[in-house]
Amino acid sequence: MAERIQVELVDDIDGSPANHTVTFALDGATYEIDLNDAHAQQLRAVLDRYVKAARAPKPEPARSTRQQERAEEQARQANKQLTEQIRGAAQRTREHLSKKAADRPEPESVKQPEPAEETLFDTSPAEEQKQDAARVPAVSMPQFSSAVD
To answer: Where do the Lsr2 dimerization domain residues begin and end (predicted)?
Structure first.
């Protein structure tokens, strides 16, 4: 079975049959519009003043495949070096913290206070507070440090 596909251009302004597909660019965006002869002429007439005053952009030199490969290789090398630097810094930090932990003296064991002897004499409230404070074991707070001292 044979199939025939027909493409019919329709003017994007008024829906009449179009004869031209006009391509133009503005602000870095490229556009296409299908126009009949009259509308294509009107568009060109409006833009003619601006086209005459404009300059053609300088084309960027095309990079060869070899240049692209070289640039990609340099980027990979830079990433590899950066990764090695980060790993080295992490290793130095671990070593620094390990050494710091090894140099830290062992915490002294907390001695439990001996049971208070019964007193036969009355004590003042200030003396009772001192005795209560002596019974409370000292608690050492954990010490935090940054990786870099």
So the answer is: 1-55
